Amino acid sequence: MSTPLPDTGVGDGKCAVVVSDLLPVGLQANAASVLAMTLGHQVPGLLGPDVKDADGVTHPGIVLIPVPVLTVSPDRLREIWELAGERELVRVGFSSLAQSCRTYDEYLDRMAGTATADLHFAGVGLFGPRKPVGRIVGSLPLLR
User: Nearest-5° angle of CA 103, CA 105, CA 109?
Assistant: First the structure.
């Protein structure tokens, strides 16, 4: 008998991670992982409960809904960031500035001196109701 999943309200939502198609694959993977981890922190209930395997070993819960990783041009990433803000979706940006920093302190310092309009996104993560998220990312290709 399976244990029912908690009703977190996340099941009716949609998640997507979109990365720049100009980045090398290693930096695309880096951007996707940072964005997914940050979405997991920002969206309560996105991660499921811990589970035990047949040997009784506990494994941390994983995300409850699919998280496709999609690709687009850097200009389109900016548009996705702006559209998500207009629609009041949960949005997470990962800039090339952030990707170039060696420490979090360096990131804090450099971000404090950079306007939002001057950020160049390596990727954007989204979460929200299915239809608004789908309208923004529904036609984008999967990362391959």
Answer: 120
What are the tens digits of pLDDT across the range 122-137?
A: 999 999 999 999 999 9
Structure confidence at residue 127 (pLDDT): 96
Read off the pLDDT of each residue in 68-96 and give the average, rounded to a whole number.
Answer: 96
Residue 120 CB neighbour total at 10 angstroms: 14
How crowded is residue 136: how many other Cβ atoms within 10 Å of its Cβ?
A: 24
Q: Which amino acid is at 128?
A: G
The domains of the chain are located at 11-40+60-136
Decide: 12 and 133 in contact? Cβ < 8 Å: no
Please state the pTM of the whole predicted model. 0.89
> In sequence order, what are the residues at sequence separation of 6 or more whose Cβ sits closer than 8 angstroms to the Cβ of residue 10?
43, 45, 46, 64, 65
pLDDT in the model for residue 137: 97
At the top level of CATH, which class does the domain 11-40+60-136 belong to? alpha beta
**What are the Cα distances from residue 10, in Å, to 78, 95, 130, 133?**
26, 26, 10, 13
User: Cα–Cα distance between 100 and 23 in angstroms, integer?
Assistant: 13
**Dmax of the chain from CA atoms?**
55
